[in-house]
Structures are given as C-alpha cells and as structure tokens.
Specification:
This protein has 737 residues and is α/β, with parallel strands linked by helices. It has a 6-stranded mixed β-sheet with strand order 9-12-13-6-14-15, with helices on both faces. A 4-stranded antiparallel β-sheet has the order 5-4-7-8, with helices on one face. α12 runs antiparallel to α16 and α15 packs antiparallel against α16. The two termini are 67 Å apart. About 3% of the residues have low confidence. Helices cover 60% and strands 10% of the residues. It folds into 4 domains: 142 residues, no CATH class; 217 residues, Up-down Bundle (ABC transporter transmembrane region fold), CATH 1.20.1560; 175 residues, P-loop containing nucleotide triphosphate hydrolases (Rossmann fold), CATH 3.40.50; 72 residues, P-loop containing nucleotide triphosphate hydrolases (Rossmann fold). It contains 25 helices and 15 strands.
Length: 737
C-alpha cells in the first residue's frame, strides 16, 4: 500500500489545498445550524433582539438601573456602566442620523454606547447582563412595592415572565429570585426588557425582526455559497490528484513490466498484468478521489458536530452516542462479511480476463475443433462466479441504506420527543433543538462516510497490493552498476565458455557446458530435436536470461558487463512467433531502426523477399497492418519481421526458426540475399530443417541441452549420429551429397 501512495508525493501542494478547503467547507457547513438556531431563537421568538448591552438607552432606564444597583450597594459597577454611554441631545449633529433608527432621538436626549474602548465595553456588558434582569423583574412586580425609580413610578407590564414563581413579598426576595434563575431565563428577561426599551424608543419591532431574519438569512446564503465553492474546488482538485496518481501508476506498472525478463513474466499471467494496470489502478483512483474528500471532511464534521451539538443541548448527548454506537456495530458486521470477498473479486476478474483473452486469441482453433459450446460454458462459469460474488457484496451493501434510513428517522423522532420535554422545562430553546437535530444528522453522515471509506479501503488495498507486487518484483536482468562500452565499430564475435543454464525454480539445467565461438561474417546454425534448448541458447545472447554458470562474451566483453540497451542495439532478432504491430508496413519495418531512410527500408524489404507486398498495394509503404499482422499471411508476417531485423544492419543477426512458414524457393532467396546484405554480420540460424543450413560455416547439434556435434554439414554427416538421423529423416540420400 505504501508503495502505491508514494506516488502521491508530487501532488502534496494539491493535497494541502484540499485539506484547507475541506476545513473551510466543514466550518461553513457546521455554522449553518447555528444560523438556523439564531433565526428561530432570536429572529422569531425574540423579535430579532439579542440579549446584550443595547446600543441606545433612555436616561431614565439607566437611572432606574442605578436605583436597583444602589439597593445592592454596587455604586462602582454602576459607574462603569455610566462611563460606557455618552449622551446625545436632540439638537446634536448625531441626533438626525440616530433618529433614523431610534425615532425618540429627534425629541429627547438619549444615551449612545461608546465604541472606542473594547475592555470597558466588555466590563459594562457583563454588569448589564447581570443587573438588567433585576430591573425587568422589579418592573414586573413594581406595584407591590412603594419604590420609585428616579422619581418616576414604574408601570408593570401587562404580560408576566414565563416560568416565574409567585409574586415576591419583598425586595430582598425579588433579588434572590433573580440570582436563582437559569441562564436561559435570565437572557429571556433581558430580551423582554429590551423589547420594552426599544418600543419606548420608537423602534418598529416588526421591521427589526424582519431585518434580523433577512440579515441572518443572507449570511446563511453567503456561507452556503462558500461551502459550494469549496466543494467544487475540492472535487476538481481531488479528481486531478486521483487521475494523476492513476496515470503515474499505469506508467510505473508499464515501465516495470517492460523491464521484466521472461523469468518475471512467468510469475504473472498476461491477463493478471492487464487487470493490475487497468481495474486495480481504477480501484486505487476511486479510493483517492473519494478519500481526499471523505478521509479529511468526515472527521472534521464528526468531531466538530459533536462539540457543537453538546454545546446546544448537552442533555441529549446520549442520543448521538447511541446512534453512532449502533451505526458502528452495523458497519463492523458489514466489514467482516464483505471485505474477504474483495480479494476474491479481483482474482475472478483475472480469471475472466484470462478466459476472454484465450478465446479471442484462439478463435480459429476453437472453431476448427467445434469447441464453441465448451468455451461458452467455460466463459459462463467464469462470468457467473464473478457476477455471483459481486451480487453478494452488492446485496450486503444495499442493506446498509434502508438500515441507515431507519436509524436516522429513529434519531430524529427521539430528538423531537426528548427535546420537546427539554423545551417545556425551559432547559433549551426550540432553535437549539432544531440545531441539535441538524448536527446529529451531520454527525451521522460523517460516520457513514467514514464507514464507506473503511469498506472501500480494503478493496483498494487489495488492488494496491497487487500493483505493488508488480512494482516491487526484483528484476533479474538489469544493467550493471559500472557498465563497460563496446568497441567501435562492433565486430560481432560471440563466444560461449562452459555455459550452463537452468530456468528459475527448475530442478535441472536445460543447457550443459556449451562452448563455441561465432565469428563475424560467418553463419552459425543451431539444430536439434524439439526441446533440445536451441531457442534458449540464442535467448542467452539477447540476455533474456543470464547463464547459471560460465560466460558469454561479445568482442571479448562479458554480456553481463554491458548495458542492455547497448547490447540489444547491435542485435537483429527474428523470433519464432513473428509479432507485428498495428500501423503501416513502414512503421513495422522502422520499428527496427527509427531513423531509417526510405531507401534502407526498401533494401531490407528486398532482402527479405517481401518488397512485392509493397509494390502490389496502392498505399505502398503506408499499407495498414492489423494488430498481430492478422491481415497478412504467416509467410508475409515472417518476412516483414525479417525486414525489421535487417533494416538496422546489425553486427549480429539471430533467426530463431524464422523460415518455418517459407517455401524452399523463398527460403533460398533470402539466404542468398543475406550473403550480400549481411556479409559482415555474425549470423545465428536456429532451425529444425537441414536443407537451409547445409552451407553454414558452423553447425551446432544440440541434444538434451548438450552439444553433441559441431562442424560443417559433411563433417557432421560422418561423425554425428544425431545429425545424420535428422538429415536422413528430411532429405533423400542424393540430396545430402
């Protein structure tokens, strides 16, 4: 998993920006319930009046407050309150502007809050919130006491304060009742008093309420727009990071596979490598795209929502705890049931790809033997196994949504039930209950998102591990730390010295003590029965494998001391299976030498006896070749592969049974052309036919991985029984002379 996530390093700036945007979005989303609570609690229930130090106050109200505070001998606190306000007379310059909000300012002197000293204002606000409820309560029951505030009789309001006890019998009892009030009741007293004060100041309370609701609504809209913008940016950046990592992973896998030797290829099937570079990379891409959002956003929302919800209604915390506990239990059960199936799913995808690939590649063989129905049943089984496993996983996942819906509805009903009792008891307000419900939903969805990540991550982890297996597979054939350089020009002398070779994991050697020298300008033919090690021997020259024992040198330098690119650049190889690529004839021939001129390409085609294919086609060199060369014959495929090797005019040419699809006439024509075209090259000719190699400079006869004969055709006919048997089985006695 770590191997894969190292590919996130180039995108660390985007990841930091995503995290910052998610903090912005999460805080915006968490603030919306607070605004809703303010609209309900302050905008609707309190008429848009907040319980705080008023901006404007009548002098008689401050006098009345001083009377109450003098009863408690709080002269110093009252002085701090007086300092916080400055008088504004009706004829003052500020009065006209002040009267726009506070109409009484046009006729009477008012006290306006000073805003130039933050520390003094905070102290005054604390004193006001503590003492103003006493004045409001005193006014409520003013008729019971022979008390005059500032020489003016205080008229009690027509409405009573909800939740207040019976009328007190003395001023001392009144003050003690205020001290025993809950904070919520005290703030309600402040709001009641401010409503009376604003009404006396000539304020339109309905307009004040509407203005507050519109102002908070506008702030909610702005916060929502910020959240939407952050969401869009996070989605954009997350998609770019995920797509970039997927691109880098596919490139890394492809590059790694290109460096594989046949030994590494044996550890992975072709179908599995295709799945790992496509489906598995897609799984990792999906996890990164979802994870960049959920893995950071969900914890912020979850923990932030818990803190804010408890701040709104601490008495209902147990509802959230119970809901989250049930949710985690369900997710844990799903996790245990589903996760083991994810690894099976990826293996079944490999299996399905293998069956499809074999059917497409072997379509002609399947039809020739009338095995379509058998292959259909084979495909259906692989397809059905994958579908049934995916259906099982999907069914389990589908159960989650209705269960989550039921839990969410139960949580909502429980909050309404418990919250309504809390509201009735005066512990919380309606807006707080509504905000608590929204926070609980946010918390619920946060844990739900995290749970989906916990379910998604194992499947992505399986895919990441499969990708890592490819990326971490050690390369057995690689460049040396301190490579040597071939002399210029390269002669092409190849020497085998006591070379033995054993395939990785095999019990026995397939080549034993091979020693010979192939010189420039000569042809070395290698013949033997099937499985004798002919192709393995020439694969050692290309360093597809390295010898288990002994050494192979090129112009006196051990092949293991050369860079692979330099070694293979001086070799023209025509494999047993002629592989062509989709494109034109020119593209396929130029594959051997990218900068080859048109003249050189035509000469190579002429030497390979395939120039007629170009001449017969209206498109010429631009004639299209289908993938794998399926739109040309087997012989044409072989000759194009030969032309591809010849165009680079390499010092070494290897033909690995490359004339098997050619008729004798074409075979002879190519060998004749090679005497001129590649007269200075070291040629290796692997074959099972005696006729093409009778005139070779050196013939190696292999049997069970050992050289049992070496020399010319005539010499081997006399001295090598294996060669003689092969020759007599193919040619008449008079042809061997």
């Amino acid at each position: 998993m770590l191997t894969v996530f190292r590919h996130l390093k180039p995108y660390w700036r985007s990841l930091i920006l995503i995290i910052a945007l998610l903090f912005v979005q999460a805080n915006a989303d968490l603030s919306l319930p607070d605004y809703l609570s303010s609209i309900v609690n302050i905008g609707i229930q309190q008429g848009g009046i907040e319980p705080t130090l008023p901006e404007v106050m009548r002098p008689e109200t401050l006098q009345a407050l001083g009377t109450i505070m003098s009863f408690e001998q709080k002269t110093e606190e009252f002085a701090a309150l007086v300092v916080a306000y400055a008088p504004v007379a009706p004829d003052a310059s500020k009065a006209e502007k002040l009267a726009q909000r506070w109409p009484l300012a046009a006729h009477e002197s008012l006290l306006v809050l000073r805003k130039d000293a933050a520390a003094e204002l905070e102290k005054a606000r604390t004193i006001f919130m503590e003492e103003f409820p006493r004045l409001v309560l005193f006014r409520q029951f003013a008729g019971s006491f022979p008390v005059m505030a500032g020489g003016t009789a205080i008229t009690p309001p027509s409405k009573s304060i909800p939740g207040m006890p019976a009328q007190p019998s003395s001023m001392q009892a009144l003050m003690s009742q205020v001290d025993n009030l809950e904070p919520l009741a005290r703030s309600q007293l402040v709001v009641r008093g401010l409503q009376q004060e604003y009404e006396a100041l000539g304020v339109d309370l309905a307009a004040l309420q509407t203005g507050y609701i519109l102002r908070i609504g506008a702030m909610m809209l702005l916060v929502t727009l910020i959240s939407v913008a952050a969401t869009v940016l996070v989605g954009y950046l997350g998609s770019r990071v995920a797509a970039g990592v997927a691109r880098d992973l596919r490139h890394a896998v492809f590059t790694r596979v290109e460096a594989f030797s046949p030994a590494e290829f044996d550890a992975f099937s072709t179908a599995s490598l295709i799945t790992r570079s496509t489906n598995d990379v897609t799984q990792v891409q999906m996890m990164i795209m979802m994870g960049t959002r959920m893995m950071f956003y969900a914890p912020i929302i979850g923990f932030g929502g818990v803190i804010r919800a408890i701040g709104k209604a601490s008495g209902m915390w147990w509802i959230i705890a119970a809901a989250v506990g049930v949710l985690l239990a369900i997710i844990g059960l799903v996790f245990v049931v589903v996760v083991p199936r994810f690894r099976t799913v990826q293996k079944l995808v490999d299996r399905l790809n293998l069956v499809v690939r074999e059917n497409l590649s072997g379509m002609m063989v399947i039809r020739a033997f009338n095995r379509q129905e058998d292959e259909t049943r084979r495909f259906e089984k692989a397809n059905r196994d994958l579908a049934s496993t995916l259906l099982y996983v999907t069914r389990v996942m589908v159960i989650l949504m209705p269960v989550m819906t039921v839990i969410m509805n139960l949580v909502s009903v429980t909050i309404l039930w418990v919250g309504s009792h809390e509201v009735a008891a005066g512990s919380i307000r309606v807006g707080d209950m509504m905000a608590f419900m929204q926070y609980s939903m946010q918390i619920f969805f946060a844990f739900l998102m995290m749970s989906f990540m916990f379910i998604m991550m194992p499947r992505a982890s399986v895919s990441a591990d499969r990708i890592a297996q490819v990326l971490e597979t050690p390369i057995s054939i690689s460049d040396p730390e301190h490579p040597e350089t071939l002399p210029s020009p390269v002669a092409g002398a190849v020497a085998f010295r006591d070379v033995s070779f054993r395939y990785p994991g095999a019990q026995e050697d397939v080549l034993h003590n091979i020693s010979f020298t192939a010189r420039p300008g000569t042809t070395t033919a290698i013949i033997g029965t099937t499985g004798s090690g002919k192709s393995t021997l020439v694969n050692l020259i290309l360093r597809f494998y390295d010898p288990t024992e002994g050494s192979i040198t090129l112009d006196g330098i051990d092949l293991r001391r050369l860079r692979l690119a330099e070694l293979r650049s001086v070799i023209g190889h025509v494999p047993q299976k002629s592989m062509l690529f989709s494109g034109t004839i020119e593209d396929n021939v130029r594959y051997g030498k990218e900068d080859a001129e048109t003249v050189a390409i035509m000469e190579a085609l002429e030497a390979a006896q395939i120039r007629s294919l170009v001449a017969e086609s209206p498109e010429g060199l631009q004639r299209q070749i289908a993938q794998g060369g399926t739109n040309v014959s087997g012989g044409q495929r072989q000759r194009l592969a030969i032309a591809r090797a010849l165009v680079r005019r390499p010092p070494i040419l290897i033909f690995d049974d490359s004339f098997s699809a050619l008729d004798y006439r074409t075979d002879r024509a190519i060998r004749t052309a090679l005497r001129t075209y590649a007269k200075d090259s070291t040629i290796f000719l692997v074959t099972q036919r005696v006729a093409p190699i009778r005139h070779a400079d050196q013939i190696l006869v292999l049997d069970d991985g050992r050289i049992v004969g070496k020399g010319s055709h005539e010499t081997l006919m006399e001295s090598c029984e294996v060669y003689r048997d092969i020759a007599l089985s193919q040619l008449r006695q008079e042809e061997l002379a």
